[in-house]
Amino acid sequence: IDAIFVVAMLPADKPAGDKETLVGADKPGEKGSEDHDDAGEKTGKGKRPGFFVAFKQTFNNGLVARVVAVRLAYALITRASGSLQINWEQERFGLTMAKMGMVNTTKSVIS
pTM to 2 decimals? Predict the structure, then answer.
């Protein structure tokens, strides 16, 4: 379902950015762009952009931002409804946490 959603939302003919943006094509001898965090070099993690740089790059493209926002909203709603369902079942049937664990295990095996 996720793949179908992404294919439907994103155009197939244009990449999200130029080659440097997509693969970080800085030459090894050059200092990285100003958008890169210095923390990666200090900790020996390599030349990966930091969280906020990746966040900014993701939400700069409107189509990608919409897909990510819808996906995040769907995940939030799914988790919230699952939590509410567990609380409702526990209160409705008067189950202890041990019994709820057994019910959830059975539900996960069945589905």
Answer: 0.47
